[in-house]
Write a structure and sequence with these properties.
alpha/beta; two-stranded antiparallel sheet; single chain
Length: about 180
């Protein structure tokens, strides 16, 4: 008889504890969603924040052109740094973000021989390619190259890191409402 009463007491306690744990997990996810999914959100917003490439190459401002994809883990890792560059330099430099999964940008992907992402191309105010970065990059290297855009003496520099994502073929070859741009 005594064990039955203990069992009845422990059942509600177990249910209460389980509900409490689930509630804590849900509240934690809600509170930390921006922290946990910030890089994915930044990548999704890049296309919306982008200057149109046709405008960027004709408005006599230097241009920061990044090829990326939302599935690219290295792109996600670099997104906060790239966003910080945009916030810091956007008054003086065009920031163009092209999602390689969007067929709309295939001519640019071919023109700049993009076969690994992220790929960042830096252009001077006349549209001359100054630097190409492929893969995961050190913030200091990119910042140095951005600051060198304004110098008169320029020579092309290509920096490739072994940590990059190869572009996946878009099997449907269609531009859809879900394509980002």
């Amino acid at each position: 008889m005594q064990s039955e009463s203990q069992e009845q007491i422990s059942k509600p306690n177990f249910k209460t504890i389980l509900i409490l744990i689930i509630s804590i997990v849900i509240v934690s996810l809600f509170l930390f969603k921006n922290f946990l999914f910030k890089s994915t959100y930044l990548l999704k917003s890049f296309g919306e924040l982008s200057v149109d490439p046709e405008i960027a190459f004709t408005n006599n401002k230097p241009t920061f052109l990044e090829f990326y994809a939302e599935w690219c883990e290295v792109c996600k890792e670099m997104a906060p740094k790239v966003s910080a560059f945009k916030d810091e330099y956007e008054k003086d430099i065009n920031f163009v973000f092209l999602n390689v999964d969007n067929q709309k940008w295939s001519n640019y992907i071919q023109q700049f021989s993009v076969n690994g992402i992220p790929q960042i191309n830096l252009f001077d105010n006349k549209g001359n390619l100054i630097s190409t970065f492929i893969g995961k990059q050190d913030e200091i290297k990119i910042r140095k190259s951005i600051n060198n855009i304004k110098k008169e003496e320029k020579h092309f520099e290509e920096i490739i890191n072994s940590e990059f994502s190869t572009i996946q073929a878009n099997k449907n070859k269609e531009v859809s409402p879900r394509s980002h741009g």
